[in-house]
Sequence to fold (199 residues):
Amino acid sequence: MGAFPMRTFSANAAASVVMALVASTVIAAEGTTPRYGFGSKAGVEELAKFVSPLPDGRGLPRGSGNVSAGKAVYTAQCLSCHGANLEGGMGDRLIGGRGTLATKDPAKPPVKTVESYWPYATTLFDYIKRAMPLTTPGSLSNDDVYAVSAFILSQAKIAREDTVINESTLAKIQMPNHDGFIPDPRPERFPPPKSAINK
Ligand code: HEC
Fold:
């Protein structure tokens, strides 16, 4: 007999927890009551700082830059760590090493750079916008990021000197190692989950 009221109680308790969660989610989403008494609603301007472009260019913000503007950005903001010739220093080497990643010649060690490794040009915008310069990430305007991307691509001889990089041209740049990534051919090493097999 004792079990029945208990069960009713837990069912009611569970239902009210669910209701409370639904209610608090609605309030938080509307931004009317600051639930924990700190923080603020992210505005349009703040959200615009977060980019996450896809390889096909979707998600890239508007903007544009050419090689000479990019050279100026590079000299002022990047050279101290990545070197006058993009050869690296405190920061990574950015160009060169093309074709070295797949050789078996021990005399030619792999040199991993934007030029030799990255399969998609849009990663330049994504990475530089969010992570560089190392000490002040997020400080560059979209135009500056497009410009410095144009400069790096031209120094790597992937894009021409007169190239203009913007939200529609960047994804069209074909990176040298675009075909260097292959799907893993070993299903025996990474079997699909059991639930997927029995369907
Ligand atoms: C204070 C030093 C510093 C400055 C200034 C700096 N970087 Fe970097 N950069 C680094 C370091 C260190 C890394 C490696 C970070 C890591 O692996 O997590 C890096 C990585 C990178 C990479 C990725 C390289 C790869 O192959 O993975 C790119 C691209 C890059 N930086 C571009 C830039 C650009 C463009 C600027 C100027 C706008 C800049 N960096 C300014 C230190 C710096």
Notes: Residues 73, 77-78, 80-82, 90-92, 94, 113-114, 127-128, 132-135, 140, 148 surround heme C (CB under 6 Å).
